[in-house]
Structure formats: structure tokens, C-alpha cells
Amino acid sequence: MICGFFAKQGEPPEAITIERMVETLAPGSAKYQIMARGAVALGCVSNRPASGEGPNVSGDKRARSYVVWQGEIYNRDGLLVELGLSGAAPQELSDGEILLRLYQTYGLACAEKINGSFAFALYDNERQEVILGRDRFGIETLYYYDSPKAFIFGSKIASILAYPGVSKALNQNALRRYLVFGYNPGWDTFFRGVQKLRPARLLVLRRDGVTEKKYWSLSFRQTQEKPVSEYCHDILDLTRDAIRLRLNDSERFGIFLSGGMDSSSVAGLAREMSNQTFATFSYRCLGRSFDESSYARAMAKHCSSEHHEVVYQPDDVRKMESMVRLMDEPFCNAGITIATYLLGEAARGKVMRVFSGDGGDEIFGGHPVYAADKIAAAFEKIPSILRHPLVSVLQRLPDSDQKLNLTVKLKRFSESIKYPKALGTYRWRIHYGQDELGKLLQNGAAPQEYESESLFRDVIDIGAEADGADMLSRSLYVDTVTEIGFYLRRMDLVRSFQVKPVFPFLDHRLFEYAAAIPSKLKFRDASNTKYIQHRAMEGVLPDEIVHRKDKLGHSIPFKNWLRGDTPVKQFVHDTLSEPSLKGRGLFNSNYVQTLWDNHQRSRYNNSHRLWSIAVLELWLRANNL
């Protein structure tokens, strides 16, 4: 992990400032390095002590440039050839040193040469400027704070808050956006003035200002008509190569295996390429309509992997008290977030890197919300004189304890159809509507930000960037820019167990190729999603994986646990106790009680709403806010 600052005016801070910043990245770690030159200070720390890797501040021989680097270059062999360094021993040059050579050769075009996960800060001593960079998908985090006196940056927000004069004041817009969506998809953060560097961006810092440069963008403008067989061949080739680049024979690896198409594709293809008996990790949640572990077991048997199955128990929800301490910002999907943490625990000490299938849904069109988009387009053609009464009736349907239940789907659809079309798939991801948010907040008034759509602005603006001709292409673009970030931040939890997450589908070549595949070959209907991927994997994966229609998507019976006599109910109730809420002063405790009562009576499924408040409360406590 990295951090640093560029003092714009006055005397630069004392050396102890960068030391304090570095110490926040890995408290108690002795493995860190610091470089300070005049107004610039850079620091880095290794977050994988078990691997023997040490932090490295790389510099050239003439001390013209220095770099701190977090991440991994996957195409380093090809880059060494391109740079005329193919005779170098494998470990002779660090990834940071390769970046320096790229910068000296190509200037700001250096980042687009890299296929990898990275965040870096490069100081050009001759030009007196600092360059920050982040990989195309935002696998590695990088935050910054621009003040009149200094520009401060770091892999963790805590490193920025350690700089003198940076306030821990809460950003109310980010907090409200979190309540609406269950996480903050914006480029701001929960701390006022602290920003996220967008993926595929460079920032050039000089004393007289900051310049942003976008070095990559995903385009859906042009589609190519090819035979299905050619698409399948190319998809397989690109996926195989993405996995090959990320395999490291010197490190034992594992795969988080759900039994769905994406993780199964990674496992099936890795089996072809690796001589290792790799490990697979899956979780199961007991309950007929929530347990899909049989598919993971079948795929593990197919791969002859060393399979580890974790049972997700209601009491595991209490682990969120520890998990929030690892989060720069809170996010609150109880299924995938806690399950990922449990899998990370299971992987600790067994593997050094773990592969995930994240990104496949955004490449090939696998999220259930894409079906909702298609249904909504047809539904909105019904005359409003008929449509509005129908929506009203559907909203009054009772909740069900089942996951895949038509009543549940209709009720959820009717509650979300009212939101702006410009939100795209995000209207199906809203937890609190305008009236609900107004009742929840302590002042009891509907927030002006909601009325003016400023809480939606980041998502709407990203949607405006999309250049696809059809609804699915635009949705895939937005989800690539935003939703992938949510899934990546939950995988950051795995790093706390000294395991590096690896994402073969997050390879820009695969995304660029798939963006040109017509949407009709990705999403056909609600039961025929990711069509072209399924066709490509026929004969590679078992038929029961390729042709399954019941993917649940990290489901747990959380709403049922919250109603039953379980540790979940007691834990959430205690976290949301009236004294806690009144002491915080953010929420209307009477309205929270109403949400609770309506959920217990099965009038509404308020589990997501209640859990988002509980996670926020735990995160605020952990950060002394």
C-alpha cells in the first residue's frame, strides 16, 4: 500500500508526517520505506508479509524519478521484451521499476501499456510533478485530498486523515447515498474533501494545479456480426490467456467457487493450465431456496480440487463488528460481504492468492436487474390509467420467506418502477425512497438532495458517458464503472488474511472484445442470460453447470433470520437500540421501530433497510465518529 503528499506552498511538513501516514496502512509493520525530497514525500508498506515481499520505493540511477507501487503487472514478460530488457532475471526488476522504465519511454502513456492491478505515485524530479495512477477497473484503491497547502494521497483513507489539518468531518451526501444504494457509488467518500481517484485515470500534480487524464474507456459503439462459433473460440482464447497471465507457479492458489458460470469457468480453465492441485472454497447456507452448494461440489469434483466448504451460520453475522474496521467506507450486502469474509478466513494459510469470477456478469450480462430493465420497458407501454392502479395493488402484496418467489419479485418491481429511467439498473437497487429517507433522517424532512436528484447525480452522469445503442449495453457500461467497484471492495476483506485476490475476468482485452458482441447474444431473457458465455463453455464445463437456470447469487435467508429466534435478530435489535440511535442523532428512532415492526409482521421485507442502518452504526463506532 502507498501514501504520500505534495506540499504546494510554505515549508513541507516534518518527516514524522509521512511516517505517521505509512503506519496507518499496516499498524505495527516494520516493513515500510519512505522517500522525501523537498516538497514531496512518498511511502509504502507491504500488505503481504507472508509472501516475503517487501515494500519498495523505486528510483532511477540519476534520481530523476521515484515511484511507490501497489499491485501486480501481469504482462511483465511482454513489457520486458518491448523495453529491451528481456535478458533481465525474473526478479531483477520490480514492477515499480518496470513502471519507471515505461514512464521514461512513453511518458503519461505508460499506464495504458500495463495489463494489471495497480495504484502508483510517481515523482518526476526534473519536471517537479507527481503522477498518480490507478488500474482500469479500480482493483487497487487510491484516495486523495486536495487542500490549499498540500495534495495528500493514500491507498487507505486513514493515511490521509493522519496528515495535519485534515478533518474527519462526515460527508452527509455520501452517507445518504449509502442509505439509498447500500454503498456509496460516488467518487466522493464518507469524509468531507476526500475523493476516490477514478479507475483508468491519471492525476498530474503540480504546484500550480492538478490535471486529470483518462487513459482508457470502454466503448460499446461498434458491434461486430460474427458466427457464434467464432465468438466462442475468441472468448475461450481470451479467458484462457487472462488466467494464464495471473497464474504464478511459485505460489499456491485457490478459487472462490460458487458453482455459477464465472467461478466455474475460472476453475475449469485453470485446471487445464496448472500442474497444481489447487484449492477451492465455497460456502453454503442451509435452506432449500438458498443453498446452491451442490453445484460447487460438483465443479470441485470435476477439477479434482482440494475443496473446502464453509457453512454460513446466523451467528456469523456478528463478524460484521470486526469487518467494519477493515472498510474505508461501509457497504452492507449481508450475503456476499460476510460470505467473502468467511471464505477469506478459510483460505488463510492454505493459499497465497485466490481467483474470483468477478466481472463475468458485467461482461456477458448476468445480473438479474437486466431482466427487470427489459420487463420495465414493456410495462411502461401500458397506459398509465391501467398501470398506476396495478402498481398500487402489487405494492400491497405480503412478503414471502422464499427467495425465488413470484410475489417477492412483483412487489420489489412495483416499488422500484417509480424511480427515474435515467438511473438505469440502479432503480432496482434502491433501498430507501424519497419519503422513506425523509422519515428516517432525524429532521424528518425529505432531503433536498433527493428532490433535486443530486444523490443520483454520479450514477446518472456515468450513464450519460455510455455510448451503446441499446439499453443492455448502457447498463453494462454503468455497472462496469460502478458495480464492479462494490464487489472489489468486498474482496479487499480477503487481503486482511494475507491472501491476494485475483480477477481474471477483469482483463481489458476481454471487456473490449465482449463490448463489440451484440446484446442479443448476451441476454436473451430472464432464464437465458450470458448466452454467449454458456455456448463458449459447452464441452469445457459439465453440462449441469453450463445449463443450470437457478443461479441464486450469494443468497442467504437474512430476512428470515431477522424474523426468527436467531442471533441475527438479537444482534441487529441491540445495534439499533433506541439509546444508540438517539445518542448518534442521525436517525428517527420511531421510524426505525416502524421498519422493524413491519418486517416482523411480514408486511414488508425491510431487512436491507435495517441492515444498512446497523452496518452504518457499527462503522461509525469503529471510526469514533
What does this protein look like?
The structure is a single chain. With 625 residues, this protein is an alpha+beta fold. It folds into three domains: 2-214, Aminohydrolase, N-terminal nucleophile (Ntn) domain (Glutamine Phosphoribosylpyrophosphate, subunit 1, domain 1, 4-Layer Sandwich), CATH 3.60.20; 228-365 and 470-546, 3-Layer(aba) Sandwich (Rossmann fold); 557-625, no CATH class. It contains 27 helices and 17 strands. The strands form three sheets. The protein has a six-stranded antiparallel beta sheet. The chain has a six-stranded antiparallel beta sheet with strand order 4-5-6-7-11-12. A five-stranded parallel beta sheet has the order 15-14-13-16-17, with helices on both faces. Helix 7 (261-273) runs parallel beside helix 8, helix 10 (334-347) packs parallel to helix 19 (483-495) and helix 13 crosses helix 14 (406-416). The longest helix has 19 residues, at 228-246. The radius of gyration is 24 Å and the shape is globular. The protein starts with a strand and ends with a helix.
